[in-house]
């Protein structure tokens, strides 16, 4: 059946479900990142110096990434065996449970060493959920889409990241404008985590209403599902795993510098007002969202690889100017810095759903896409804020952080160069997606 014959209403419902669900998932993930930059060091690692407490808090942020490959394998296996939809529902429930748990968690002053231990456990559960969430949302959007709009519809799972970030920053912005610093440190930081229970309820209602992926439904009817999807990926598509994982390293590393480290660096080192920085991050996030949609649509016309190359080159050349502008402390230059940075992030994130789907066969696509995404996240974003904090503390200059980002961006650029051209155009891969 031609993609044009797909009913518009179910397709729009799937697109909305992908966008809303991932927005809620990433809202949960990002409020943890923001709270890490702002208060977790003081509340859960009070026996350490301020700098060491920040490092320890960022370490918990990174540890959550270590659970993502496990989540990718777990959700990917059952996503390829049981179905995409069921895994989307379960991952959202797990993320909601972990996030609300953080909001209810006593601090170090109340329960001592159990506070950071429990914080770490809940962060690991968040990572486990995030490891499989993206793959399911991306594949549901791409596998429902018309064959010449895979990139465009796949972008609906991608915009959940900046949308979740915007939502998280807006909540912290409102709290910053209405509460004193003492009130925020005492109880205000818990509000974003507890609000998550309402958002998760909304997301569940939306996701339960969508239909299973037609690609998976055909696999199930034809009894062509892989019994060991991750093993099959490693045996049949090792190069695709390397290319996909490597292409994502720079995006996630630089993305987490933008969304987590910038707040910490700006408030603690540059002494910029926290509210100002939150506004800057929101502006950058809006740019990221718009550039994701534009880049994804562009990839449907010219192919995935040219779009990835353009974004990857920008991520190589911009880190040094980025920190030079940030270090001026001038709001206008801060905004310029994050706008350009997020154009590069959007170009290397918008076409990702379609590209990863095109690199793997349908019978093990959930496993391949999720594991690649998780490995790229671990190697790139997992410890990027921690590394950046350590570099800046050791050298006293942001140049060391810039050079670190240039290095990871070059690594991803090399991976992008190996994206097969015959798999970078939707017209050439429609049969593989449809099969």
From TrEMBL:
Q: What's one Pfam family the UniProt record gives for this protein?
A: MFS_1
- Domain of life where this protein originates: Bacteria
Question: What stretches pass through the bilayer?
Answer: 29-49, 55-75, 87-105, 111-132, 153-175, 187-210, 240-263, 275-295, 307-326, 332-350, 371-395, 401-419
The protein's location, in the record's own words, is:
Cell membrane
- How does this chain sit within the bilayer? Multi-pass membrane protein
Q: Provide this UniProt record's keywords sorted from A to Z.
A: Cell membrane, Membrane, Transmembrane, Transmembrane helix, Transport
Q: Which InterPro entries match?
A: MFS (IPR011701), MFS_dom (IPR020846), MFS_trans_sf (IPR036259), Sugar_transporter_CS (IPR005829)
- Predominantly, its location class is membrane
Q: Where is the signal peptide?
A: none
Positions of the Major facilitator superfamily (MFS) profile domain: 14-424
**Which PANTHER family does the entry link to?**
SHIKIMATE TRANSPORTER (PTHR43045:SF1)
Task: Please report the name of this protein according to its UniProt entry.
Answer: MFS transporter
Organism (species):
Amycolatopsis plumensis
């Amino acid at each position: 059946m031609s993609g044009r014959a797909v009913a518009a209403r179910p397709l729009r419902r799937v697109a909305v479900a992908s966008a809303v669900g991932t927005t809620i998932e990433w809202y949960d993930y990002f409020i943890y990142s923001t709270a890490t930059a702002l208060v977790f060091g003081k509340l859960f690692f009070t026996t350490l110096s301020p700098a060491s407490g920040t490092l320890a808090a960022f370490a918990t942020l990174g540890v959550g990434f270590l659970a993502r490959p496990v989540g990718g394998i777990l959700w990917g296996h059952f996503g390829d065996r049981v179905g995409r939809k069921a895994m989307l529902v379960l991952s959202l429930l797990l993320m909601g449970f972990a996030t609300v748990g953080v909001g209810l968690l006593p601090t170090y002053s109340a329960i001592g060493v159990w506070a950071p231990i429990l914080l770490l456990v809940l962060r690991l559960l968040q990572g486990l959920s995030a490891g499989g969430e993206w793959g399911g949302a991306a594949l549901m959007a791409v596998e429902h889409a018309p064959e010449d709009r895979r990139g465009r519809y796949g972008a609906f799972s991608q915009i959940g990241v900046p949308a979740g970030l915007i939502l998280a920053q807006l909540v912290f912005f409102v709290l910053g404008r209405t509460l004193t610093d003492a009130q925020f440190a005492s109880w205000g930081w818990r509000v974003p985590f507890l609000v998550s229970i309402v958002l998760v309820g909304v997301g569940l209602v939306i996701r339960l209403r969508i239909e299973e992926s037609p690609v998976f439904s055909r696999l199930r009817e034809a009894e062509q599902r892989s019994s060991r999807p991750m093993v099959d990926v490693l045996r049949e598509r090792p190069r695709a795993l390397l290319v996909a994982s490597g292409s994502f390293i720079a995006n996630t590393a630089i993305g987490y510098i933008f969304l987590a480290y910038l707040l910490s660096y700006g408030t603690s080192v540059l002494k910029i007002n926290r509210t100002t920085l939150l506004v800057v991050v929101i502006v950058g996030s809006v740019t990221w969202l718009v550039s994701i949609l534009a880049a994804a649509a562009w990839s449907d016309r010219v192919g995935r690889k040219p779009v990835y190359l353009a974004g990857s080159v920008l991520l190589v050349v911009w880190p040094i100017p980025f920190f030079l502008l940030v270090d001026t402390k001038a709001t206008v230059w801060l905004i310029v810095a994050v706008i350009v940075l997020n154009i590069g992030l959007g170009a290397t994130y918008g076409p990702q759903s379609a590209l990863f789907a095109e690199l793997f066969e349908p019978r093990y696509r959930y496993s391949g896409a999720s594991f690649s995404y998780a490995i790229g996240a671990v190697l790139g974003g997992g410890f990027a804020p921690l590394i950046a904090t350590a570099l800046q503390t050791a050298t006293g200059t942001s140049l060391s952080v810039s050079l670190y980002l240039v290095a990871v961006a070059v690594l991803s650029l090399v991976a992008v160069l190996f994206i097969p051209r015959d798999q970078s155009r939707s017209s050439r891969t429609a049969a593989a997606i449809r099969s």
